[in-house]
């Protein structure tokens, strides 16, 4: 009997020890997941339609020689050196001077100046004679007409000579400056300088058919380029075609770009985000932390070192954030890193 009691006691003790070890192992197997959190907060969100296209200058011109003459590249008064590619020039700047003595002589500028003096004196003389009865009114009118024609002839002479100066018709940047040896004779009709004004630019682009109801002339546009990632330029949607291309199922549009510092260059590939909806100060979270389940869209918050599933209802979104219409409040601690391994009520450790 005593032997039986001893054996039963040992069995009971073994079971008790096994139970304690098993509980200890079960407790230690409950892991704690490290997570990073941030507060849910209010932000401004813009929803947009993205398109791409080649940026082009609003003004571009090639200036040609109107007459033949010896080539003389002028100095840029801003730099003190001859004009070169990339120089910003004001409207009316003389870039090149063509010299042609024979042409200038044919204009007879000095002769036309003298002719004005002669015609003016003749007119004055006829007026005096008319007052004394020695000339008719017709004589006075003919003398005045000769004076006017002499003035016009001189003005035309100046205009003709001015054609020897190659001027810029508007403020812009020199983008083409063909090389000619100084003093060599340049034929008429030669391209002497190419000029662009790209302080204002435009992009012609195509939009998918299903975006037609969302787009409207006057909508704001954000313009970026991989060469100027740190800068976003402002633009506006200025034109939209009402016709759909039957082959591509797209329609065309034009975007005008403000480029005051000339950071965007003609020919650059531009990315355009047309703002279709904007909401200011809306509750928002990073869009990439949302899990899609049958029960809806889920995110995790942290309460007392536990992960809590939250079913949310979302609104508009941009490339980073999404509006939260229901399910969260300002200041909620939302898991932004480490959420991939969480379940409802998971133990978590908030990392700094």
Describe the structure.
This protein is α+β, with helices and mostly antiparallel strands and 352 residues long. The protein is built from four helices and 19 strands. The chain has helices at 2-28, 101-107, 109-132, 137-162; strands spanning 33-39, 41-64, 69-73, 88-89, 94-99, 165-167, 172-176, 185-186, 191-208, 220-224, 233-240, 250-258, 269-286, 291-293, 296-303, 306-317, 321-326, 333-337, 348-350. The protein has a six-stranded antiparallel beta barrel with strand order 2-9-12-11-10-13. Helix 3 runs antiparallel to helix 4 (137-162). The two termini are 65 Å apart. The relative contact order is 0.20. The model is unreliable at 1-28 (pLDDT under 50).
What is this structure, in a nutshell?
With 352 residues, the chain is of the alpha+beta class.
What is the share of helical residues?
10-25%
**Which spans have pLDDT < 50 for at least 5 consecutive residues?**
1-28
**Spatial arrangement of strands, main beta sheet:** 2-9-12-11-10-13
What gap, in angstroms, lies between the N and C termini? 65 Å
From the alpha carbons, calculate the radius of gyration and give it in angstroms.
41 Å
Biggest β-sheet description: 6 strands, antiparallel, barrel
Strand content: 35-45%
Return the average pLDDT rounded to an integer.
Answer: 88
- Helix/sheet category: alpha+beta
Count of individual beta strands: 19
Question: What is the topological layout?
Answer:
Blueprint: H1 2-28, E1 33-39, E2 41-64, E3 69-73, E4 88-89, E5 94-99, H2 101-107, H3 109-132, H4 137-162, E6 165-167, E7 172-176, E8 185-186, E9 191-208, E10 220-224, E11 233-240, E12 250-258, E13 269-286, E14 291-293, E15 296-303, E16 306-317, E17 321-326, E18 333-337, E19 348-350
Parallel strand pairs: 1-19
Antiparallel strand pairs: 1-18, 2-9, 2-13, 3-5, 3-8, 4-7, 5-6, 7-9, 9-12, 10-11, 10-13, 11-12, 13-17, 14-15, 15-16, 16-17
Helix pairs in contact: 3-4
